[in-house]
Structure formats: structure tokens, C-alpha cells
Amino acid sequence: MKSAFDLYVIEKIKTLRKEKNISQLALAQGIGVSAGFIGRIESPNHNAKYNLDHINKVSKFLHVSPRSLLPEESI
Fold first, then answer.
1. Tell me, what DSSP letter sits at residue 43?
2. DSSP states of 8-62
3. HTH cro/C1-type domain: which residues (predicted)?
4. Is residue 74 part of a domain?
């Protein structure tokens, strides 16, 4: 089950991805995972989630700080 923290990170990345007009496929290719994996992460029906390595790679791909993908306060 995805925690509130997981859901925050997932939504933050999804929002940034869409703002930059980046598809799930492009993000997946940029961080070295399958498009299906990104789809499972963004789906509420699957338990897939980003790990710290994914967050680091996503931040590089989106040209943002890893810190900007995380909540400012504990959840």
C-alpha cells in the first residue's frame, strides 16, 4: 500500500511531468525504467512507487532539485 508520503511524491512528479509536457514513456526512458512501471506508479490500483534512486534520476531528468519532489514537512 502506498503511504501518504509516497502519494505526495508520485503526485508531485506527475504534476511536473505534465507541466513540462513529458509523457510517461519519455520519463521512463529518461530514468531507465519501462513505461508500464511509470503507469503502475501513477495508478492508485498498484503498489509500485518511486525509490530514492528513482527520485534522484527523475530530478535530473526534469532539471529540478530532488528536495523539490519531497514534502517540506513530515506527513
1. -
2. HHHHHHHHHHHHTT--HHHHHHHHTS-HHHHHHHH-TTS-----HHHHHHHHHHH
3. 13-69
4. no
Q: How many domains does the chain have?
A: 1
Expressed as residue numbers, the domain containing 49 is 4-65
Is residue 25 in some structural domain? yes
The cell for 22 is 513529458
Contacts of 33 (CB under 8 A, 6+ apart): 54
Is 70 part of any domain? Answer: no
C-alpha cell at 57: 534520476
pLDDT in tens, 28-52: 999 999 999 999 999 999 999 999 9
